[in-house]
Amino acid sequence: xxxxxxxxxxxxxxxxxxxxxxxxxxxxxxxxxxxxxxxxxxxxxxxxxxxxxxxxxxxxxxxxxxxxxxxxxxxxxxxxxxxxxxxxxxxxxxxxxxxxxxxxxxxxxxxxxxxxx
Length: 117
Known about the structure:
Elements lengths: L3 H26 L8 H18 L3 H24 L4 H26 L5
Helix pairs in contact: 1-2, 1-4, 2-3, 3-4
């Protein structure tokens, strides 16, 4: 069985990967002409902010991180099908957000099985 510390760390690392993929993808490789760098900043901040709460052991940021992972996953799959020039970025975002969703759920499950202090 995986430890709670390892589950939290894997969730935070997945959140960091999603944030980096979004930020680098929409900030450097495919910047938006209408929104400029604001799209990259606005999309990459929520996973990082919630990852801080996950590392502190709080339940609500972990649950919200899993919920927001569905947004990133849906966006990645939509870009994968609709925009052929960003298929690599969309594939990476989809896979990292799937990993984030699974690790957030697993972290919540492991945390619920820990004895209360």
